[in-house]
């Protein structure tokens, strides 16, 4: 063969091989998407969910799944349910229970009760609606969890699941006497319900969901964060609001906080007398005077939360009473208590037990006061600590005097019971309530799943600074690239889950869908105040001198909203910029 023919043949072979490369690459990409596994550390992009249609509702009463009983399956007509003034479309309501049993410990009957709502016109998505508080009741499965949500999950076409997490009675913590009920509440109910729900969806629509999400606030936010660690292979998106991922520690810290407030309360049975509304306004105004303009606009909001923790000094900046309390100042004793409470619960030798809290003007709201002064001595925090989080549980007689239990609680000794286990209670509260390894989300990341976490800076029970600390540690673990799969949004002025002088109305679930299914990372989320006339419900904490629909960008931590130019009431006049103060003192 001459050289010319040899070169021609070689060129032909090369061209054929090159023509095959795109096909091979495409096949490999499709395989990666189907298996949800990235190659060489890359993060796969998941495909969008595809719509479907309900086959039949009534026949779901015969749905067969292990240890599951369906008690109801019926169509709900359009308009029978509504949200934000809009009717919810026709859907199928399914109710049932799983794993019914009689406890060998307390003799009570337990089961995981649930409700699912399946839209006739389905978006191809499943939403686990993680509920708050102590659970204990099957909240309507509408997919609502943020402040004044204008469009809930059911309206967005999700098949939605809600449950009681394995026990009944949202204000009855005695379920904590039963070891399995503790585990179901902590994490196992989610693991039990998820495959059942997906199987029911397959029965209802002829296929399993294309994309699955879990979302909630408070304890529901904790459920979402735990799921990201324990059940990452079951979900594509995690939306965690005000996440109490260290809930046992925060509940104990509430009792310690009650003891601090009691030092300056004028009525021991009403801890709010330690810092009533007029004095909280004095404290809030001092924070505003020092920090409001850090974002280049004086607007009654502290956007640069990080820097504020450095420049605000409660001893220097708050007016001190020269004589008696008159509502315009704080005494030296009050200032010391405020300083101690915001610094976080500590043992007698000064060791940190729970995170510090951020100084934020949202502390003026009644929601903040309710958590600090009322929940800490009522049948919420004391009984949760005593019956659910302590090993062994306290004697039920302590419920007769929750104030006395809170004020006499020994952080050094009793506080350690949340870390203890025994032959009956084989997992401590810090094991069954918290993510096993919150800074290692490899399974979630490598599957292409995404997480959005949001937290109000004036949350009175779960510290947003604790959440910021978690995100900093997560980011360090992923070499400053955690924002590729997880983003945290700290919301100025917002209280626990919602409320406060804040822009607390936003579409977190829609932002998560855009990120998971379309690759649109949330560089900012527009949030609106719920002033007069808001269709999702009015937030009474919105100041009267704000525009009723004031909007602000929620910025991914550690960026903060900074005013640039234009109308100060609209989000487009702000940009997300780095904090000018760097990491805060309590982060």
Tell me about this structure.
Mean pLDDT is 92; it is low at 1-39. The strands form 5 sheets. The chain has a 9-stranded mixed beta sheet with strand order 2-5-6-9-8-10-11-12-13, sandwiched between helices. Among the domains are: 52-208, no CATH class; 249-427, no CATH class. The chain has 587 residues and is an alpha/beta fold. Strand 10, helix 3 and strand 11 form a beta-alpha-beta unit. The protein contains 15 helices and 17 strands.
Question: Ends: how far apart?
Answer: 75 Å
Q: What would the average pLDDT be, to the nearest integer? A: 92
Backbone CA Rg: 26 Å
Report the major sheet.
9 strands, mixed
The SS-based structural class is alpha/beta
Spans where pLDDT lies below 50 across 5 or more residues: 1-39
The proportion of strand residues reads: 15-25%
Number of E-state strands: 17
